[in-house]
Amino acid sequence: MKIAFSDYDGTLMRSAAFDDTRGVTESDLAAIRAWQAAGNKFCIATGRNYGLLKMDLDKYRIPIDYMIGTNGAALFTGAGEVIAQHTLDRETMRQLFATEAMRRYRNGMLIITPLDNYGYRPRTDVPSRFLHPLASLDEAQKVPGVVQISTEYADAAETAAAFAEINQALPGKFAGNMNRSFLDLNVAGCSKADGIAELISQIDDEVDEVLTIGDDRNDLPMIERYHGFTVSTSKDFVQAAAAKVYDSVGDMLRDHM
Length: 257
Known about the structure:
Elements: E1 2-6, H1 26-37, E2 41-45, H2 50-60, E3 66-69, E4 74-77, E5 82-85, H3 90-97, H4 100-104, E6 109-112, E7 117-120, E8 132-133, H5 137-141, E9 148-152, H6 156-169, E10 174-179, E11 182-187, H7 192-202, E12 209-214, H8 220-225, E13 229-231, H9 236-241, E14 245-246, H10 249-255
Parallel strand pairs: 1-2, 1-12, 2-3, 7-8, 12-13, 13-14
Antiparallel strand pairs: 3-4, 4-5, 6-7, 6-9, 9-11, 10-11
């Protein structure tokens, strides 16, 4: 059996998240169905949790067998059953919010569990209708089962600088998974690559080949570990790390059928 892991936003979903004009192409969907009909597994590996991905799974009828969610901090079956999760404890969250980097932070913040999403101040990428509102960071610390804290900055350089400052204040506490101007803070050691390895260790079927495809910095661990691929719209640094560049996820699947 072969198993393929595709990033979602920017890879399978090629346009901006939560834009009503976006879509997953029928060509890609047909390739996924053919891939599965041949006895293989298709999975999404994303920074989203299952709650935020499910609306698209239903809307576009995307057939998935498993999901690597929140950059490897939560693993799911295709139906949304939680297989594993790596949570941030309240003391770690308290220490984070007390850092100078977070005291200066004024943009929106997402507090994410495997299935639910909480918002503290508005975000540009996730409309408020998808979020449970939080009035304070004290409330955020009381949310049970947090697997990811997501912040947003002006650009990729500011995002990297923010994580460097957080990591200096709390060395080794967090994985900083970065995607464009977004910083996802997970338990140290969480990445899409680690999530894939953990999932494969729990699958009963023998896995003969692992395929990965993504388009941004948080996809690099899985691209590099599994000699994976990227799409033609990705940045040069991602294309430099990839074994091959494809125009679409469907093209990758058809090439390895």
